[in-house]
Amino acid sequence: MEKVRIAIIGIGAMGKKYALQIFQNQVDNMELAAIVCRNEPGRNWAREQFDEKVKLFSSSDELFEHTEYFDGVLIVTPHKEHPRLAKEAFSKGIHVFSDKPAGIYTKEVREMNQAAKKAGVAFAMMFHKRTIPIYRYVKEMLEKGELGDLNRVTWVSTKSFRTKKYHQSSAWRSSWKGEGGGLLMNQAQHPLDLWQWFFGMPVNVLGLVDFGKYNDFKVDDNSTLLMEYENGMRGMFISSTGEGTGEERVEIVGTAGRVILEENTLKYWNYTMPMDKFMEINQEQEAQIPYIYKEREFENYANPYIAMLENFAD
Fold this sequence. Notes:
By secondary structure, this protein is α/β, with parallel strands linked by helices. The protein is 30% helix and 27% strand.
């Protein structure tokens, strides 16, 4: 089988990670064909790591003049450049895999999505948490209606503690001009993607957002989002980059059961009778709904980034 030849645009921390994984044959059916890096230190790093088969370019414009070298691009640049680079690739019939987020302006992202449809090529975003088994299992539960009608969701995502050194690691990080935001544009993108994958889009959102609560910058680093859905379900999403001992905890409550996710553990209270029916027929003033308790520990999973890249190549 022929391998997909990929060109990586941007060799920051994640760009280097992807480049090494692909070059070291960790990604089935994909090979590293080219790298774009605007600074000399990055190009020197690439020369030390890769052989002459990997082409080096100093700009995306130069790369797109040589589309004979590659089949797809992996965009790992600062956020605001994602739509522009993707649209350029689409215009040339090139497949696109972009790191998250899609962009920082809604209008540009919509234009990018339209360009992808028009081009008819593969288009992916790096929301790798969708490959993690425990989340896939919950997605299947929800699709099968195993929790009944959903009433409440509480999602605490506070494991993304970041130091001052992280925020200062690149000039574009943690700024409106460079990153287009902070916590919600960067770290919280992954659990928020899972949220809308599970529950769809809310009809109302109240955002209680702190800007520079833990840091000396102007973007967000702490937030509580309250969401309301057309069917009456309400949810609360809490995220932060300033809590030293954070957690990833999800609680979903429905008329047929309740689920709690903590790390790789899933706890499930499966009601033997729908809650609304039990409330109607039970003759006690205070009663405990009958349920079957199940607990499942999910084992370690394969590298989710590699899984995403392999899916794109396939």
